[in-house]
Amino acid sequence: xxxxxxxxxxxxxxxxxxxxxxxxxxxxxxxxxxxxxxxxxxxxxxxxxxxxxxxxxxxxxxxxxxxxxxxxxxxxxxxxxxxxxxxxxxxxxxxxxxxxxxxxxxxxxxxxxxxxxxxxxxxxxxxxxxxxxxxxxxxxxxxxxxxxxxxxxxxxxxxxxxxxxxxxxxxxxxxxxxxxxxxxxxxxxxxxxxxxxxxxxxxxxxxxxxxxxxxxxxxxxxxxxxxxxxxxxxxxxxxxxxxxxxxxxxxxxxxxxxxxxxxxxxxxxxxxxxxxx
Length: 277
Ligand SMILES: NC(=O)C1=CN([C@@H]2O[C@H](COP(=O)(O)OP(=O)(O)OC[C@H]3O[C@@H](n4cnc5c(N)ncnc54)[C@H](OP(=O)(O)O)[C@@H]3O)[C@@H](O)[C@H]2O)C=CC1
Ligand SMILES: O=C(O)[C@@H]1CCC=N1
Known about the structure:
Layout: E1 7-10, H1 14-23, E2 33-36, H2 40-49, E3 52-54, E4 66-69, H3 73-83, E5 92-95, H4 102-109, E6 119-123, E7 133-139, H5 145-156, E8 159-163, H6 167-178, H7 180-197, H8 202-222, H9 227-234, H10 240-250, H11 253-274
Parallel strand pairs: 1-2, 1-4, 2-3, 4-5, 5-6, 7-8
Antiparallel strand pairs: 6-7
Helix pairs in contact: 6-11, 7-8
């Protein structure tokens, strides 16, 4: 375990919990993690894990080398400004908030005309909770290679990492892997419902649907063939799969997914404007 990394989680909700599941014990000790959250029930859960906690930003922030902002986009400005007095010149700030751009956060943290340059935006996802997450990262110009490595090392503790070049690309990451688990869970729910409607019981539906998603994604990851080729191998001419895929096509499944992802990306861009003032 890398013990020397000290961390503050600003916002101790769902995503902070998912990240901590991989980080604590692997990248930092629980007592080196300081959690800021206004909710006593949330703080109590963190206390039980052995972290220090506070309801509002406090001087302990200054002892933490890395801060991860994990509050809702609408809370970001107030929270960032409240934390700002506790910055050290070498504090590495990581934001996982959807939408809010690196330029906006850097301006909030910095002085007029002198934006904060030690800032990385990340977009993780909830499978981080079981170490199976994937995180998109982008760094503002000026972040040292060492600090990029620290951010990467943190996110690697909960899954894979993909660096992208700018905020726009991070919005695309948000629309794919940030929000993506919800799309997959929706598809899983639909498969299970479909199976129940066809007469299978709850347990059978769950086992078959989960194993199908799991097996198919593993096959796609390991196979040299494209998803399209793998799909064709399932689809016998005049058979059952062709009948099902014809319905997907008729209902424009691909267009629906495209439209949904565009909506997620557009919403990220809206959040950037809505909560930047
Ligand atoms: N959930 C996901 O799948 C993902 C979320 N994200 C991003 O992560 C961020 C957090 O999302 P998520 O974890 O789901 O949200 P949660 O609501 O679960 O967690 C946010 C936490 O921050 C607390 N909070 C509110 N105000 C403050 C404050 N002033 N100071 C400190 N903490 C505060 C909230 O308390 P209270 O509930 O009392 O308001 C809550 O406990 C968002 O910006 C989201 O865009 C990124 C990737 C994936
Ligand atoms: O729904 C949201 O806005 C956040 C960002 C990605 C996943 N959850």
